[in-house]
Amino acid sequence: MIRPENPCYIKLVNSWLILNSGGGPTPDKPEVLLETPPDLNKMSSFLNLRVADIWACYKQWSAKGAVFLTEPLDNHGHEWRCYMRDPDGYLIEVGQYTQMALDNFKKYAT
Description:
By secondary structure, the protein is of the alpha+beta class. It has a domain at 41-110: Roll (2,3-Dihydroxybiphenyl 1,2-Dioxygenase, domain 1), CATH 3.10.180.10. It is built from 2 helices and 7 strands, in the order βββαββββα. The strands form 2 sheets. Strands 3, 4, 5, 6 and 7 form a 5-stranded mixed beta sheet that branches. It is globular and about 45 Å long.
């Protein structure tokens, strides 16, 4: 982590993940207000993360206080996934592709 909050900056290999907790309009979005939805069970979007070992991730993040809705579950043999909530209540999907899914992706790679 580069900066812990407001906004939070996380460097992942050669990418940056920037998490904003909300705020009012800015010059480049003059009529937009970013806020936590009033009903946390109705989402219009969520973040998807794919990890190499979902069970290790689930155990490590749970030990650090992450609250997951369920344990990782098998999604029809294509991936394992579970969902957690960030501190504002937004959903984050954590998944791991199975070998079957990876093999299917190779069919479409050019």
